[in-house]
Specification:
Layout: E1 2-10, H1 14-25, E2 30-33, E3 50-52, H2 68-79, H3 85-95, H4 98-104, E4 123-125, H5 129-144, E5 147-149, E6 153-160, E7 163-171, E8 174-185, H6 194-201, E9 209-210, H7 219-226, E10 231-232, E11 238-244, E12 265-268, H8 282-285, H9 289-294, E13 301-306, E14 321-323, H10 326-333, H11 337-350, E15 351-352, E16 366-367, E17 386-398, E18 401-402, E19 409-411, E20 417-423, H12 441-462
Parallel strand pairs: 1-2, 1-8, 2-5, 8-20, 9-17
Antiparallel strand pairs: 3-4, 6-7, 7-8, 10-18, 11-17, 12-13, 13-17, 14-17, 15-16, 19-20
Helix pairs in contact: 1-5, 1-12, 2-3, 3-12, 10-11
GO molecular function: oxidoreductase activity
Protein name: Tricarballylate dehydrogenase
Pfam families: FAD_binding_2
């Protein structure tokens, strides 16, 4: 079989749909190929809740302004400068237009959230979460005439001298060649490909849990790199958070994540603390804990807290492990009891009396003379019952990807922009995220570069 379209979009999440909608609104005929079944469509977008966009004033769903300069400062801090500043500033500037544009595609937002998230001013939350957002975008795309196909895995690409010619699609009925005037690759990273992760992480990757879709195996990324597209990003860098160790291997999503690090201490298998639990606010620092745990023995750690904090954060899907004494808790965690109790006692003794504990500000509740320190939100773990969550690295998406320019056009290994190939979303996130993560920025990358890619692909296909 053989079919032809102006623009072919490979992928089915936020980035892919923003590309498909913008290309269709620009007059192109568009086909979307989603490798997953319809129920699991949307990649990691299914598990998201919000996006981070610059804005000059408070809105109905945001409590105050979030300027381009502040966004840039936050991004620079979490990436430690490992970002393409030109592309990053381009994305931030374009993000100011994304909230009204996304709303115009049928997506609805809910009132701002407070609490431990600290995102009410910076991030807009989707009413109904990522699944509702996807449903709205699919409804809009299909209403505009975008052709969507599920269970459609691309197994080969025909590319000559930086120009996309066709894709070979595998389905139950056989193989089909799909031709198009332009390609938008928005098929995610390779986080669900454990064998590929092990190439860089070694045996520890076997203990990683994959928070999102099992369909992001990096097939499209590998084909593009093999066809001469320039790669970008450190293959060991990724968006990784500490999630409940009892979560499923794939697709655990948001309900297995834990936001309680700041309320206690984190110890490894040897009952030792290994990092400052109070370094910064949750949105800027929660995504460091996956990598931290990945470097611990057996890739396991335990968040330990007491009765004072039990109702202060969103719990995991699974209940915490509880005990009436620290000794009993150590036994349930299979940790050395004497060492565990000594670690907790040492932490408690190092706390400097400060003002009142307040997780919404960088308070002065800290430790002194302790390595590693806890620089904020330190209070004794001394009120029974005692609790712990076991955590493992939860990989959201990988940062190794394809290099793009401000048109979202792929760059070939010889430095030339591809003739008609564009990329958006996780498959090119490494251009902006060299390391680290700030809450909601994955959706920003997907929507900004998705819309940009769709518009560019439409112009290229119709020219």
């Amino acid at each position: 079989m053989d079919s032809a379209h102006d623009v072919l979009v490979i992928g089915g999440g936020n980035a892919a749909l923003c590309a498909a909608i913008s290309a269709r609104r620009a007059g192109a005929s568009v086909k979307v190929l989603e490798a997953a079944p319809r129920f699991y469509r949307g990649g990691n977008t299914r598990h998201t809740r919000n996006m981070r966009c610059a804005h000059d004033t408070a809105t109905d769903t945001l409590t105050g302004p979030y300027t381009e300069d502040e966004f840039w400062d936050d991004l620079k801090r979490v990436t430690q400068g490992h970002t393409d500043e030109e592309l990053a500033r381009f994305m931030i500037a374009k993000s100011k237009d994304m909230l009204p544009w996304i709303s115009a595609q049928g997506v609805r937002f809910q009132p701002s959230l407070g609490g431990t998230l600290s995102l009410g001013r910076t991030n807009s939350f989707f009413l109904g979460g990522g699944r509702a957002m996807l449903n709205a975008l699919y409804q809009t795309a299909e209403g505009l005439g975008v052709e969507v196909e599920y269970d459609a895995e691309v197994v080969a690409l025909e590319i000559e001298d930086g120009m996309f010619l066709s894709a070979t699609v595998k389905r139950q009925s056989g193989l089909e060649t799909v031709r198009a005037g332009a390609l938008v690759a928005a098929a995610g990273g390779f986080e669900a490909n454990i064998a590929w992760l092990k190439e860089y992480w070694g045996p520890p990757a076997e203990n990683f849990l994959i928070r999102g879709t099992p369909y992001n195996r990096g097939t499209m990324l590998r084909m593009l790199l093999d066809k001469g597209v320039q790669e970008i990003g450190d293959p060991t860098q990724c968006h990784a958070v500490a999630i409940d160790a009892r979560a499923p291997k794939f697709d655990g999503g948001i309900i297995t994540r834990l936001d309680c690090v700041v309320f206690g201490i984190v110890v490894n298998r040897d009952a030792e603390r290994f990092y400052d639990e109070g370094e910064d606010f949750w949105p800027k620092r929660y995504a460091i804990w996956g990598r931290l745990v990945a470097h611990q023995p057996d890739q396991i750690a335990y968040i330990v807290f007491d009765a004072k904090s039990l109702t202060s954060f969103m719990p995991s899907l699974y209940p915490p492990i509880s005990a009436s004494t620290l000794e009993e808790l150590a036994g349930k965690l299979e940790l050395d009891r004497a060492k565990f109790c000594a670690t907790v006692a040492g932490f408690n003794a190092a706390i400097v009396p400060g003002g009142s504990f307040d997780h919404t500000v960088l308070d002065d509740c800290r430790t002194q003379g302790l390595t590693p320190p806890k620089t904020h939100w330190a209070r004794p773990v001394d009120t029974p019952p005692f609790y712990a969550y076991p955590v493992r690295p939860g990989i959201t998406f990988t940062y190794l990807g394809v290099r793009v320019n401000q048109e979202a056009r792929m760059i070939m290994t010889d430095g030339r922009p591809a003739a008609n190939m564009f990329a958006a979303g996780e498959i090119m996130a490494g251009n902006v995220l060299g390391r680290g993560y700030a809450a909601g920025i994955g959706m920003t990358i997907g929507s900004v570069f998705g819309k940009t890619a769709g518009e560019g692909a439409s112009r290229r296909a119709r020219n």
